């Protein structure tokens, strides 16, 4: 019981250590914990994601391998981009979002000739507009709701014109804000910016392991806060106003909780990021080849009323990302995925209280395991662990699919595993310790076969004190003092060793326990520690065998059967498995009486009753012992 109590205390200590590590995330464990949580999320995402609707509001026009093969390498002339935009408008696209930045002007061939040959300027001037691809694109952008992308940078360099911000922070709000602040940008030319309906940044945030899981919805340039490209596109498509940022002050900072878009609440992390709401592997969205649009081969049903994203998906493009759901995911589809999640209001998120719940689950599950595993079988513990993990998995799936809650239930798994292994090790160590104790106690008192049986049948016997019916045998050489007087020390040693070896082998052969030697006396008993139905018969057989090998050494043997106290007894310095009680005393007394009655073996009445169907007895006498009259018997053959 002490071992189980210690195991429970150690297991509970491990549970609290794991819970504390998850909650406080010490620096030397933080990256490891984040990695485990991230990997767990990736696995959950690939199992739990909601498949994309069969009629999504978002489609993608891809600059794909087919387009590059027919039109030529990227970037294309902007007149081709303009033609795509006009074709999409003709087909009824609701909003066109260009996943690209037009930060530099495209050269005009007529201008270049005029600069090289000024004398031809007057004749060429009427053709300037015809070859002005930038003006053509700006015109196309202005004819339908169009969104452009731009990129924030951290190198301090500022190119192009920023669009109008979502909101402007006060000086106090700037000091408290956790919205990422960028010191540079690459934006579109004013010509394109003014022609478009708006812009959004294209930046995403790659985790430390190189995998894209989160994407920011807001960033700022000093006091001005700007939307992500996908957020701006969804806002335009829904015609929904930006209605604010919900945050709460923690210490000196405003921790972001959500962003409001019309009547939609978009839950975010403290920095305004969301988990990308993947609804399938790459190319789950409807894809249209850009070259098919240029060639007029796209049906209006594929475009009408939709939010259209235009971007690269070609195999060799640099806009392929490693994401939580796939190692190669087109960047334009990432933007489409975020926008579609906002439009469909499908935005799974990690709640701010998720870590606290993870700690609570670890404490509950760990405490249950710590308090129960030591008292149940390993198979039951294993099945119980699987059942607990199955229940947590079901809760996790329900929370994700029904409420969009991404919960981290990974840590109960190692907690249960550690406690299970600890319990298993404690049993193994306890078993080794038990075997050592058994060998120490019985190594020289039972046969090798009996010892092996005892080691294999752990739990079927005990070495603690117990009352049992046993049969006790005492034997000694009648005339040992005379024999000893005529022998030298070496001769006496050889004599005793030979005699005691012979009689001990008989005890072992008959499954007895060798209790002790006292000079020439031997004490043994049967019926413990294992229950033995024929203990009296085995003792009598052993006595007859001893007398048979002792023809030149007359011995006397006393045997009694009765209830005695047996167990591992002694001091902290030495102890042994022995028997104490009336049967021991009577057997010892009967051994002495063999000389008086000149018989080699005397047994008590209880022994005689148990074995009279196997051996012949004659009554020798009745003796007084411990205030009782006791018949005694000798064997007659």
Features:
Alpha-Beta Plaits; 637 residues; 8-stranded mixed β-sheet; single chain; alpha/beta
Description:
This protein has 637 residues and is of the alpha/beta class. The protein folds into three domains: 2-38 and 351-430, no CATH class; 51-344, no CATH class; 444-635, Alpha-Beta Plaits (2-Layer Sandwich). It is built from 21 helices and 27 strands. Strands 1, 2, 3, 4, 6, 7, 16 and 17 form an eight-stranded mixed β-sheet that branches. α1 runs antiparallel to α13 (354-372), α1 (2-24) runs antiparallel to α15 and α18 packs antiparallel against α19. The protein is rod-shaped and about 150 Å long. The protein starts with a helix and ends with a strand.
- Proportion of residues in extended strands: 15-25%
The helix-and-strand class reads: alpha/beta
Low-confidence stretches: none
Strand count, sense and closure of the main sheet?
Answer: 8 strands, mixed
Please state the CA-atom Rg, rounded to the nearest Å: 46 Å
DSSP helix fraction = 40-55%
The total count of strands amounts to 27
Helical stretch tally: 21
| Domain module tally | 3
Overall shape: rod-shaped
Alpha carbon gap, first and last residue: 51 Å
Average predicted confidence as pLDDT: 88
């Amino acid at each position: 019981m002490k071992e189980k109590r210690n195991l429970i205390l150690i297991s509970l200590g491990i549970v609290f250590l794991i819970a504390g590590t998850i909650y406080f995330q010490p620096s030397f464990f933080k990256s490891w914990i984040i990695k485990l949580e991230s990997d767990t999320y990736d696995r959950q995402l690939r199992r739990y994601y909601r498949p994309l609707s069969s009629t999504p509001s978002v489609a993608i026009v891809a600059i794909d391998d087919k387009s590059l093969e027919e039109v030529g390498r990227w970037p294309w002339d902007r007149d081709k981009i303009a033609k795509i935009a006009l074709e999409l408008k003709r087909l009824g696209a609701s909003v066109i979002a260009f996943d690209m930045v037009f930060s530099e002007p495209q050269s005009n061939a007529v201008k270049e000739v005029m600069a090289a040959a000024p004398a031809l300027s007057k004749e060429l001037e009427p053709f300037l507009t015809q070859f002005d691809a930038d003006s053509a694109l700006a015109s196309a952008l202005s004819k339908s709701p169009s969104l452009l992308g731009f990129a924030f940078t951290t190198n301090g360099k500022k190119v192009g014109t920023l669009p109008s911000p979502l909101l402007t922070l006060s000086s106090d709000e700037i000091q408290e804000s956790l919205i990422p602040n960028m010191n540079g940008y690459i934006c579109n030319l004013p010509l394109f910016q003014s022609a478009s309906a708006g812009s959004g940044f294209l930046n995403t945030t790659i985790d430390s392991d190189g995998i894209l899981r989160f994407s920011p919805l807001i960033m700022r340039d000093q006091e001005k806060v700007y939307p992500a490209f996908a957020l701006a596109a969804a806002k335009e498509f829904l015609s929904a106003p930006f209605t604010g940022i919900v945050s709460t002050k923690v210490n000196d900072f405003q921790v972001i909780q959500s962003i409001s878009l019309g009547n939609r609440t978009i839950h975010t992390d403290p920095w305004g990021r969301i988990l990308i709401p993947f609804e399938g592997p790459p190319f789950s969205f409807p894809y249209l080849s850009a070259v098919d649009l240029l060639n007029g081969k796209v049906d209006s049903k594929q475009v009408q009323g939709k939010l259209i994203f235009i971007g690269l998906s070609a195999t060799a493009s640099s806009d392929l990302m490693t994401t939580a759901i796939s190692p190669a995911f087109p960047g334009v589809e990432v933007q489409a995925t975020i926008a579609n999640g906002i439009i469909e209001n499908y935005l799974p998120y990690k709640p701010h209280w998720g870590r606290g719940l993870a700690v609570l689950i670890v404490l509950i599950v760990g405490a249950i395991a710590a308090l129960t595993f030591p008292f149940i079988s390993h198979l039951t513990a294993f099945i119980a662990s699987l059942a607990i993990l199955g229940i947590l998995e079901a809760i996790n799936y329900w929370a994700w699919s029904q409420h969009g809650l991404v919960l981290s239930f990974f840590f109960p798994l190692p907690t249960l595993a550690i406690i299970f292994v600890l319990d298993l090790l404690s049993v193994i160590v306890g078993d080794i310790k038990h075997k050592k104790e058994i060998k120490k106690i019985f190594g020289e008192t039972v046969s090798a076969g009996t010892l092996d049986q005892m080691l294999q049948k752990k739990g079927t016997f005990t070495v603690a004190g117990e009352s049992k019916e046993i049969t006790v045998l005492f034997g000694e050489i009648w005339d040992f003092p005379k024999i000893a007087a005529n022998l030298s020390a070496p001769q006496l040693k050889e004599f005793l060793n030979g005699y005691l070896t012979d009689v001990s082998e008989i005890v072992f052969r008959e499954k007895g326990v060798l209790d002790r030697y006292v000079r020439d006396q031997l004490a043994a008993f049967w019926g413990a520690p294992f229950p033995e139905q024929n203990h009296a018969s085995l003792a009598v057989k052993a006595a007859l065998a001893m007398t048979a090998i002792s023809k030149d050494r007359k011995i006397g043997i006393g045997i009694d059967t009765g209830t005695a106290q047996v167990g591992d007894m002694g001091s902290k310095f030495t102890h042994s498995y022995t028997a104490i009680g009336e049967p021991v005393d009577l057997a010892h007394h009967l051994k002495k009486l063999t000389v008086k009655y000149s018989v080699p073996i005397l047994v008590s009445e209880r022994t005689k009753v148990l074995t009279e169907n196997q051996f012949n007895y004659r009554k020798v006498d009745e003796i007084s012992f411990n205030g009782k009259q006791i018949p005694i018997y000798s064997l007659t053959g």
